[in-house]
Design a protein that fits this description.
heterodimer; A: about 450 residues; alpha/beta; five-stranded parallel β-sheet; about 30% helix; globular; B: about 200 residues; seven-stranded mixed β-sheet; two-stranded antiparallel sheet; 8 helices; 9 strands; about 20% strand
Chain lengths: ~450, ~200
């Protein structure tokens, strides 16, 4: 048999019909909706008199505009936001879809609770009307973001009509240095190969440094495949994957079937494109501009980029990025709000205070399960003592929906995935970085190298 | 019903910047209802208005120029429509009246959303796109070529996308004609991957 990539194995196994001209009808195993774009798909489906083919394989959650203040209900600070919540709830009830509602104990950001609940599994196809669905490729699933029309298509037919993408392997060889994380790996890839670098491809992340990552870090790595313009990212399923998923509510009782050991690229499988990055050369990364490709090692100077980006960010070429004064800090989002992210940030913040110049600092756990775990470990107290607000789970200020915002004109450091103009609010200047870089920078009141804020160095491996 | 109009000829409005994201095409704060309508007014709000809340126009923005106020054809740079998967970006463009976008490249989710909403996404080299600025361009979908001042330039499009656009086909209706193939596939798949098929939990 010809050696196949993991993507090819999943794609071929899901091909219902191969049409002329390169398109295929691909079976979709799971659909996950959220209130921001899911209600539009469900409403349209009802308007057209269509129904969900298999509601037991469709899930929904309130995460995008749900309030994150303690004691929340259906009301939102975003004008009109509660309509998204009530519409989604009604549509899910009508369609018989399992909804993780506002205060469901398992509520959280879609891509975080999908793993926590075992909704995503290796070898599955999973789609959601959310670009960061690629996060779930960390489980060895083919998981990608789609529009609302495609979500409707997937619900009504359990399939999508797709052109076959190309394949790319990105290998991170060697070991990550101290203080460097999966966030810095993906930002390095995007900085080196561009925000359009993965266009048309499914990107498999591989290599020693990827195998060494725990599941939560693998999710961070795959999360920003969409910022690379890839259809999605994917990582081979291994013992860590199955250990993570074992016992999750929607996961199978065991992973004993030999099938589960096949969900990796065969030795000698050919990719359309290969990229190799030496992990040992990666440094903590911080964005300087208005695209994720405008990212540099924290101690580098700002390079020459598009004039608009320099103007919007008020940072000239040649300026030192480290030391740039900040007004706000945000730890959260589907990129970096899992328990390991919060632990690493808390480790830096323990016994310290954020700078007086930081007027707003938020920690928003990725799920209520993460929140409970963090509270059990006392992390919430560390964050609060340091000057961060501790919130309920949701997407929060990863984007500005018109409700809660950062103070006007703020320069923020954020563990999120997008530094677009206005993403976190009109005129807000966003620098994206790892949670530890956010924590260190909040203490310094300026962009800072997290390695200088480590309480103690971990022993070298 | 929504087939791409043939013949199609329009003045090309240039917005040739790289990595224009869907947050800029339709900011989250402009997505005020769970429907698909009423979005054109907020389209490109951060660039189109000098004061978005008061809807004070920025006279320098291309779609505020007299000749482009009812633009049907947009020119774009690389990775156009990157970022959020929000189909609202395409719904806003469609409601505004955009029927075709010629770009150096598109972000994949945005491009798929265009086809589902009968906006024709055409990819051409940067130099060609730039040469079309403020020019009248004719698009022949059937022959897969554009024409401007007597110069023809071919473009690639997936044959299924072409059929959907040319005939205004609804993808779901099309797939529903293949229900028996889907049912056969599901019947064959269930025994081999039982974990995929969940019991209803509500």
């Amino acid at each position: 048999m010809m050696a196949k990539t993991l993507f090819e194995k999943i794609w071929d196994a899901h091909e219902v019909v191969r049409a002329d001209g390169g398109s295929s009808l691909i079976a979709i195993d799971r659909v996950f909706l959220h209130e921001r774009t899911g209600a539009a798909a469900l409403n349209r489906m009802a308007e057209m008199g269509r129904t969900v083919l298999d509601p037991a394989r469709v899930f929904a959650v309130m995460d995008h505009i749900v309030d994150t203040r303690i004691g929340r209900g259906d009301d939102t600070l975003m004008p009109g936001g509660s309509e998204f919540i009530t519409d989604t709830r009604k549509a899910c009830n009508d369609a018989g879809i399992r909804l993780f509602d506002v205060n469901d104990r398992d509520q959280g950001i879609v891509h975080i609770i999908s793993g926590e609940q075992g909704v995503v599994l290796p070898g599955l196809t999973l789609v959601a009307p959310d670009s960061h669905t690629c996060t779930q490729g960390a489980f060895g699933a083919l998981a990608w973001g789609i529009g609302s029309s495609e979500a409707e298509h997937a619900m009504v037919t359990s399939t999508l009509r797709l052109e076959r993408p190309k394949t790319m392997q990105v290998r991170f060889e060697g070991a990550l240095p101290f203080g460097v994380t999966a966030k810095d790996m993906i930002l390095t890839l995007i900085a080196q190969y561009g925000a359009g670098g993965g266009a048309g491809h499914v990107v498999e992340f591989a290599g020693e440094a990827v195998k060494a990552l725990e599941m939560e870090a693998r999710m961070t790595l795959c999360n920003m495949a969409t910022e690379f313009s890839a259809m999605t990212g994917i990582i081979a399923a291994d013992a860590k994957t199955y250990a993570y998923l074992a016992g999750r509510p929607f996961a199978p009782p065991d992973f004993d079937d030999p099938y589960w050991q096949t969900l990796r690229s065969d030795h000698g499988a050919k990719f359309d494109r290969e990229i190799v990055i030496d992990a040992s050369t990666i440094a903590p990364m911080v964005s300087w501009g208005t695209s994720p490709e405008h990212t540099i090692p924290v101690n580098d100077t700002v390079p020459q980029g598009p004039d608009r980006a320099h103007e919007y960010m008020d940072l000239a070429a040649g300026a030192e990025l480290a030391g740039t004064p900040l007004d706000a800090a945000f730890i959260g989002s589907c990129t970096n709000s899992r328990i390991s992210d919060l632990r690493r940030a808390a480790q830096i913040l323990e016994g310290r205070r954020i700078a007086p110049s930081i007027s707003k600092a938020l920690v928003v756990p990725g799920s209520l399960a993460v929140k409970r775990q963090a509270e059990a470990e006392g992390l919430d107290k560390i964050f609060e003592a340091a000057g961060f607000e501790w919130r309920m789970s949701g997407c929060s200020l990863c984007f500005y929906a018109g409700g809660e915002g950062f103070p006007e004109g703020s320069r923020t450091i954020s563990s999120t995935n997008r530094n677009f103009e206005g993403r976190q609010g009109p005129g807000i200047r966003t620098h994206i970085a790892s949670p530890e870089t956010v924590a260190a920078s909040a203490i310094a009141g300026a962009i800072a190298d997290p390695r200088e804020f480590a309480h103690e160095k971990e022993p070298a491996e | 019903m929504n087939a791409f109009p043939q013949p199609f000829s329009a003045l090309a409005a240039p917005l040739i910047r790289d990595n224009v994201d869907t947050d800029t095409i339709i900011p989250s704060r402009e997505m005020r209802t769970t429907g698909r309508d009423g979005l054109a007014d907020g389209m490109f709000a951060p660039w189109r208005y000098s004061d978005a809340d008061a809807r004070v126009e920025n006279p320098d923005f291309v779609l505020n120029k007299a000749e482009h106020r009812s633009a049907k054809l947009l020119l774009a740079g690389a990775n156009f429509g990157c970022g959020s998967s929000r189909e609202h970006a395409v719904w806003a463009l469609a409601e505004f009246g955009i029927r075709a976008i010629i770009a150096e490249s598109f972000a994949p989710i945005f491009r798929a959303n265009c086809v589902r909403n009968f906006i024709l996404p055409i990819t051409l080299p940067r130099s060609v796109v730039e040469g079309l600025s403020h020019e009248t361009v004719t698009i022949d979908l059937d022959d897969q070529q554009i024409e401007h001042s007597g110069v023809f330039c071919p473009f690639e499009i997936d044959s299924e996308a072409k059929q959907m656009l040319a005939h205004g086909l609804d993808a779901i209706d099309l797939t529903l004609t293949q229900v028996s193939a889907i049912q056969d596939w599901l019947s064959a798949d269930k025994p081999s991957r039982p974990w995929v098929y969940l019991e209803h939990s509500q």
